[in-house]
From TrEMBL:
Identification of the protein by name: Importin N-terminal domain-containing protein
Cell compartments where the protein resides: Cytoplasm; Nucleus
InterPro entries the UniProt entry points to: ARM-like (IPR011989), ARM-type_fold (IPR016024), HEAT (IPR000357), HEAT_type_2 (IPR021133), Importin-beta_N (IPR001494), Importin_beta (IPR040122), TPR_IPO4/5 (IPR057672)
Gene Ontology BP terms: protein import into nucleus
Source taxon at top rank: Eukaryota
Length: 1113
């Protein structure tokens, strides 16, 4: 039997581990101590060494404590109750006697573990609480600090015990005012940990609040300007945030008001020692705005908030975060990181203003902000910084309350034009920056002004100030992406101006300019073709930058080359292929995430361009993508103070079969685990998943390979549970593309609309079922992130659009139940919405109505698009499912809902009616009533457009609901509502087009009841459509109907009919097949009434005469 070591042997082992330079000797000592620890007597020796401050070094004592902690539970179970009590007394005594701080913390670590062990037994440990309380009274600051640390370490064990709260709890409050900084910092943490345990002890909690809140406010206000107290102020601010979060608006409104006023003062304190303090104050205010909007509104604090934000925004020149910070490339602690990442006053104040717009009463916030903004913009003598703040404030409103500003686009553009010509570069830069937000959030109204915007921006690329050019480039990047084919006439002027600006600009501005080129190329307008080779030649230099170059220019160039090559086509890009492919290979061989991310996008574009010719590069591309997906890059750190006492790095692993610890010892460390993962690493994974999906979708299983397809499928299924929502979302999209790729090029017959028939082979069916029932359905039903649920909805839509109704092997009742849950706002991903609406006061509105006060931009549009896709796939047989979902949609059309809700719900209802056809009849009367109400009620043009579409869909398929009853009054109401939109100069062109198209349908379906002479001549003046090309089909159909079936009307209005026909014929947006269809009808008219037709043509404009005579030949 192996003899247990004595105390000298154990001491020598520990000293060897700590001091020897010989790795083999250290390893042997580690193995020996592991074997020795199998005996409880060795653990007892560790206790003796721990007490031996005379002959055992501090390092050996610390290591003794660490090893004792690792074997504590196995030792504890082997001791009698008397010996357990003795061990507790020894540890508490040594905790007070140990002279070295790091060793004291190591002993405290053991004590905290032992406290958890005691909590499992019937016996308590009152001596521990008494020791903590005694240490708080110690004149030694280190002992007081240790008492605070122990307090929050064992709070989870004793926090719900009144004796603990009454003794230790009140004492840690006193630590908040301690003379020693470390004690105060530890006390702040202790208070923060203890407070949640007071949930059921209202009187105790009220007493603590009364003590804590004045100290918190006084600490922040008295130290805000002291640079030496920065950490104290920041940590106290964290406690203030916790307090704001847990205080109830009804019972603690006075406390909340005190904290709110202090935070608002701090945010505006120009004399603060560091901007991070002010930013933190703005973040806490933002939390209050998000979680307690009713408090802000009831206390009439909105005006103060808005004014405070705009004042801070006008302090200095900057507009946004001045630089990107890469944690991986910096060698500093977390506090330094946080200080370096501080935002400028304009940025953190504008973010708060944006939150106000999104979470508070939009009407009140907008009224308050607009009164201040308008006063500045209308004052020619306003200072440049004030003008800057005003236009940035408008940008915030455009994101938070777009419906209000979309109706005022002309006013906004006038303000932008004025500021873009300002003598100071500050308002010019701000105006260009704001225009980017307007272009993004005020659609579609602002896009109709492209004839004003684009020439203005092209001219501004010549601005002498680099920051202005950068903001203009960023705005062009956003705008070009959205105006699409409308960009064509401007490319000839735009591209040379961008390319001229690149050499004279800073690197940051060059990055923005290259991104703008990417957006122009992405439109694939024919006018861009002439610039393809010049752009690629220009990009050779940034693509040759050293991989380690800190800028993002090579990153942006990689993205741009891929997009430009796709626009140019295979043949024209061929001379550049090898050079750029080599550079992308270099990108993939680096560890720089940004370069790898864009390289995967480049490879996806190459595959789309080369098709099967990409196969030689396929294996390397997929291998690199899977490697990126599977690689985890992150920094994990335990920030608990007691864990820092165990910072000695040991290679001690017990490889024996001794399982006496039952796995408990290693899991009992105090943990505050913080995982930091850079955004760039996440985006790299997302891009890699996208790349795999695109390669599979383009090459299909025949070229991609079945084995490779299965390997990628498994990789993506695994990563669909990744912690970051972006990665999960992209994995879902890629899985859908793989499911489509599995079908390959084998033709399959789609089932008729609404029929679930099996036309797919067994392998494809298995993949689709796995995706539907094991991935997408569970995600939509149980995922907690809205972005991921929206991605699941998008993936489902893509699957249905490709496979039709046969996507499903059974009925869709379960899917519709999940969708209904989402419409009711009752899914797990919407849980936070309910919390916000309830505002912790139980004032969350009617039971069962949880849809919230604001439009859900993130998720609900995707849910409704899924309903549209299902309706299109199932046709008339979708009606039973619509019967179930329709009532939930009606809630979004209720009076007082946001205009965006009207747009969304009206749009999905219109699409469903169009897809269901005559099966929509049961909803006719209610839907027509709702459409008319919204047309008159809302200012939102897009909502009116969709209501007109509802009317058109119902007239298309259910007009008999009027004709069979002879309801002339209802018909007149419908025509009046439609002309309220079509005849207005204030609506967007899409709304007018929808109203005109709906009127065309009414005329075709109900001509005997329509007052033709009152309606049709004016209708003809609006043909063809202004912007909605799809509606031209209905307009041409109406013209043909009139010519063929309404000869009396045509005879009386020949000039109007021929003029409308001529305008259609010369309009480039009308397709050739529609022109041929109309031409055939015109020839029939000419043959039947040659004389009158010739006479009428002779009276028209010469251009129309020539066109019509050609068509009549």
């Amino acid at each position: 039997m192996e003899q247990a070591p004595d105390i000298d042997s154990v001491r020598n082992m520990l000293m060897c581990i700590l001091t020897t330079m010989d790795n083999n000797e250290r390893r042997q000592a580690e193995i020996a101590i592991v074997k020795a620890l199998r005996s409880s007597s060795t653990a007892t020796l560790l206790v003796q060494l721990l007490r031996d401050t005379a002959t055992t070094s501090a390092g050996a004592r610390q290591l003794s404590a660490i090893l004792l902690r690792k074997k504590l539970f196995s030792l504890w179970r082997s001791l009698s109750i008397e010996h357990q009590q003795e061990l507790k007394n020894i540890l508490l005594t040594q905790l007070g006697a140990e002279p070295v701080k790091i060793v004291r913390f190591a002993i405290a670590h053991v004590v905290s573990i032992l406290a958890k062990a005691e909590a499992r037994d019937e016996h308590g440990w009152p001596e521990l609480q008494q020791s903590i309380f005694s240490a708080m009274q110690s004149p030694d600051a280190e002992m007081r600090e240790l008492s605070m640390v122990l307090s929050y370490s064992i709070a989870e064990v004793f926090g719900d015990q009144p004796t603990f709260i009454n003794g230790v709890g009140q004492a840690v409050v006193g630590g908040l005012s301690d003379s020693a900084l470390n004690v105060r910092l530890a006390a702040i943490k202790a208070v923060g940990v203890i407070l949640p345990f007071l949930h059921g002890q209202k009187s105790v909690k009220a007493t603590m609040h009364a003590s804590i809140i004045p100290i918190v406010i006084q600490t922040i206000e008295s130290n805000i300007a002291d640079p030496n107290a920065l950490t104290l102020v920041l940590r106290t601010m964290e406690l203030a945030e916790q307090l704001c979060e847990e205080l109830h608006t009804n019972t603690h409104s006075e406390y909340l008001m005190q904290l709110f006023q202090m935070l608002l003062t701090v945010m505006g304190a120009v004399g603060a020692s560091h901007l991070r303090v002010r930013e933190h104050a703005s973040e806490v205010l933002g939390m209050v705005v998000q979680n307690k909007p009713k408090f802000i509104q009831k206390a009439n604090l909105i005006d103060q908030l808005v004014r405070g934000c705009l004042t801070v925004m006008s302090e200095e020149e900057s507009i946004s975060f001045p630089f990107d910070y890469d944690e991986e490339e910096q060698d500093m602690d977390d506090d330094d990181v946080e200080l370096l990442r501080v935002r400028t006053p304009c940025m953190f104040a504008s973010r708060l203003l944006n939150l106000c717009c999104s979470h508070l009463s939009t009407k009140t916030v907008t009224a308050s902000a607009m009164s201040m903004i308008t006063a500045v913009l209308e004052n020619p003598a306003a200072a440049p910084l004030l003008r800057k703040a005003a236009i940035i404030g408008l940008a915030c409103l455009s994101e938070g309350n777009p419906g209000y500003l979309r109706r005022r686009v002309t006013m906004i553009l006038n303000a932008v034009q004025l500021l873009l010509q300002d003598a100071s570069h500050i308002p010019r830069e701000a105006a260009a920056f704001a225009l980017m937000y307007f272009s993004d959030h005020l659609q579609p109204e602002i896009l109709t002004h492209h004839h004003t915007l684009l020439p203005l921006l092209i001219e501004m690329l010549k601005d002498q100030h680099d920051n202005v050019r950068r903001r203009v480039a960023e705005t062009l990047d956003t705008l070009c992406e959205n105006v699409a084919e409308n960009l064509e006439p401007y490319i000839v002027q735009l591209m040379p101006r961008i390319m001229e600006a690149i050499p004279i600009s800073t690197t940051a501005t060059q990055e923005a300019l290259v991104s703008a080129i990417s957006s122009v190329a992405q439109t694939q307008c024919p006018a861009f073709q002439q610039f393809g080779e010049s752009v690629l030649a220009l990009l050779r230099e940034p693509m040759s930058l050293d991989i380690s170059h800190p800028s993002l220019l090579r990153v942006k160039a990689t993205e741009c080359v891929g997009i430009v090559s796709l626009a140019m086509g295979r043949e024209r890009y061929q001379p550049f292929f090898h050079f750029f492919m080599e550079k992308v290979v270099e990108n993939l061989n680096t560890t720089r995430a940004e370069l790898r991310e864009e390289s995967f996008g480049f490879l996806a574009n190459m595959c789309e361009m080369l098709k099967e010719q990409f196969v030689p590069f396929l294996n390397d591309a997929v291998t690199a993508a899977i490697e990126s997906i599977n690689r985890d890059v992150g920094h994990v750190e335990n920030k608990h103070l007691l864990a820092q006492a165990a910072s000695i790095q040991l290679g001690i692993h017990d490889d024996s079969d001794d399982n006496d610890s039952d796995g408990e010892d290693e899991d009992e460390d105090p943990n505050e685990m913080h995982v930091r993962v850079r955004t760039a690493d996440v985006e790299e994974k997302s891009s890699a998943a996208y790349c795999i999906g695109t390669l599979a979708e383009v090459l299909k299983v025949e070229n991609f390979g079945l084995v490779r397809l299965q390997m990628c499928w498994q990789t993506l299924v695994n990563v669909s549970g990744h912690f970051h929502p972006n990665v999960r979302s992209n994995a879902l999209e890629a899985l859908t593309k793989i499911a489509i790729a599995a079908q390959g090029t084998v033709p399959f017959a789609k089932s008729p609309a609404g029929a679930i028939q099996e036309n797919l082979n067994a392998d494809v069916r298995e993949i689709i079922n796995g995706l539907l029932y094991e991935v997408l359905y569970p995600c939509m039903a149980g995922e907690t992130e809205k972005e991921v649920v929206a991605a699941a909805c998008d993936a489902l839509q893509k699957l249905i659009q490709y496979f039709g109704a046969q996507t499903f092997s059974s009925d869709i009742a379960d899917l519709c139940a999940v969708i209904g849950n989402l419409l009711r706002n009752e899914a797990p991903c919407q849980a936070n919405d309910e919390d916000v609406n309830s505002d912790d006061d139980g004032e969350d509105g009617a039971a069962g109505d949880n849809i919230g006060e604001d439009h859900d931009h993130v998720l609900m549009d995707a849910v409704c698009d899924t309903i549209d896709t299902l309706a299109e796939a199932f046709g008339a047989s979708f009606e039973p499912y619509f019967r179930e979902l329709g009532p939930h949609l009606l809630k979004y059309l209720a009076e007082g809902r946001p205009a965006e809700d009207f747009t969304m719900a009206a749009g999905v209802m219109a699409n469903c009616f169009m897809s269901m056809g005559p099966s929509s009849e049961p909803y006719f009367n209610d839907a027509i009533t709702i459409a008319q109400r919204i047309i008159y009620e809302t200012d939102e043009s897009a909502a009116k457009a969709n209501c007109c579409f509802i009317i058109r869909a119902l007239m298309e398929h259910c007009s008999h609901c009027i004709s069979n009853t002879g309801n002339q009054a209802l018909l007149q109401q419908i025509l009046t509502a439609l002309w309220n939109v079509a005849g207005s100069n204030d609506e967007i062109p899409q709304a007018c087009d929808n109203a005109i198209s709906a009127t065309c349908t009414v005329v075709m379906k109900l001509a005997p009841m329509v007052p033709m002479q009152a309606v049709v001549p004016t209708l003809l003046q609006h043909l063809p459509m202004k912007v909605d090309k799809d509606e031209n089909k209905n307009g041409v159909a109406c013209l043909c109907y009139l010519i063929q079936f309404q000869s009396d009307f045509v005879g009386a209005n020949l000039a109007s009919v021929l003029t409308a026909s001529a305008k259609v014929m010369i309009d480039r947006s009308v397709t050739d097949d529609l022109k041929q269809q109309l031409g055939s009808s015109l020839r029939q008219l000419g043959a039947a009434h040659r004389g009158p037709v010739e006479t009428a043509i002779g009276a028209l404009h010469p251009t129309f005469q020539k066109n019509l005579r050609f068509m009549l030949q």
